[in-house]
């Protein structure tokens, strides 16, 4: 890679029992322009109660209060990302590219975006490769030709793919020794984590969750609770939006 940052690796988080996702993992490994390592995702449904209690806070610990109980799939997902952060630290990498196993990579677009973001990862520490169009109102903070690094407020949900610096990995490990909500909603709260998440406008990453067998994190909602849950979600997102505009880190 033509970049100041060279000591990097791709970590692909793969849930073994999600058999339909293996082909996506193999595609990522075969097309990735940097060294790759597969992380066996932590299956929340198999976690012993002691391990769950060791990471899960028995009270809401961040502002704003999260209105839902985190489920076992979300706990496993969070622990899997912590494992990826830990490997970045343990291997003393300048940065790690963390990718989940339900995406596909458009190699020509992705390689340009990766090369671009590697030139700025020391400065911005955490850069998302989103599977959806970034917020059009996001501020442009760096640009080269058609590629841009954006500052979305609020930070986009989803952790499909992201470039994480050594410094960000250390900070996130320290700030998430206890958790009370999913990893993507935690990452929105830069006033709590002290790490701001930026994103690149052209990621080359696309979501294939349905083709990969569907989400492993889905909540089972009875219809009579769905409306109430949607109201709570809207209220929570409005709080996140407000705090994102005014909080500092």
Descriptive tags:
249 residues, alpha/beta, Spore Coat Polysaccharide Biosynthesis Protein SpsA, Chain A, eight-stranded mixed beta sheet, two-stranded antiparallel ribbon, 9 helices, 39% helix
Provide an overview of this structure:
The chain is α/β, with parallel strands linked by helices and 249 residues long. The chain has a single domain, classed as Alpha-Beta Complex (Spore Coat Polysaccharide Biosynthesis Protein SpsA, Chain A), CATH 3.90.550. The chain contains nine helices and ten strands. The strands form two sheets. It has an eight-stranded mixed beta sheet, with helices on both faces. Strands 4-10 form a two-stranded antiparallel sheet. The model has no long low-confidence stretch (mean pLDDT 92).
Question: In a few lines, what is going on in this structure?
Answer:
By secondary structure, this protein is an alpha/beta fold. It is built from nine helices and ten strands. It has a single domain (8-246), classed as Alpha-Beta Complex (Spore Coat Polysaccharide Biosynthesis Protein SpsA, Chain A), CATH 3.90.550.10.
SSE topology:
Elements: E1 8-14, H1 22-31, E2 36-40, H2 49-55, H3 72-90, E3 95-100, E4 103-105, H4 107-118, H5 121-124, E5 126-128, E6 139-144, E7 147-151, E8 161-165, H6 166-175, H7 183-188, H8 190-193, E9 198-200, E10 205-207, H9 223-246
Parallel strand pairs: 1-2, 1-3, 5-9
Antiparallel strand pairs: 3-8, 4-10, 5-8, 6-7, 7-9
């Amino acid at each position: 890679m033509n970049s100041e940052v060279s000591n990097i690796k791709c970590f692909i988080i793969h849930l073994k029992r999600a058999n339909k996702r293996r082909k996506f993992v193999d595609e990522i490994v075969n097309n990735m322009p940097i060294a790759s390592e597969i992380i066996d995702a932590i299956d929340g449904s198999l976690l012993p109660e002691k391990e769950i209690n060791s990471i899960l806070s028995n009270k809401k610990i961040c502002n704003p209060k999260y209105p839902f109980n985190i489920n076992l799939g979300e706990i496993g997902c969070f622990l899997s990302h912590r494992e990826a952060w830990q490997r970045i630290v343990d291997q003393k990498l300048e940065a790690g590219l963390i990718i989940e196993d339900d995406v596909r990579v458009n190699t020509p677009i992705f390689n340009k975006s990766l090369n671009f973001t590697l030139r700025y990862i020391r400065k911005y520490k955490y850069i998302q490769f989103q599977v959806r169009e970034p917020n059009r109102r996001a501020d442009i903070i760096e640009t080269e030709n058609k590629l841009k690094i954006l500052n979305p407020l609020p930070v986009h949900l989803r952790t499909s793919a992201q470039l994480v610096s050594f410094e960000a990995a250390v900070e996130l490990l320290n700030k998430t020794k206890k958790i009370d909500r999913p990893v993507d909603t935690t990452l929105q709260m830069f006033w709590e984590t002290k790490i701001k998440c930026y994103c690149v406008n052209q990621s080359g990453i696309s979501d294939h969750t349905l083709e990969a067998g569907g989400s492993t994190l889905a909540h089972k909602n009875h219809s009579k609770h769905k409306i109430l849950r949607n109201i709570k979600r809207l209220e929570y997102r409005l709080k996140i939006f407000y705090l994102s505009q005014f909080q500092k880190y």
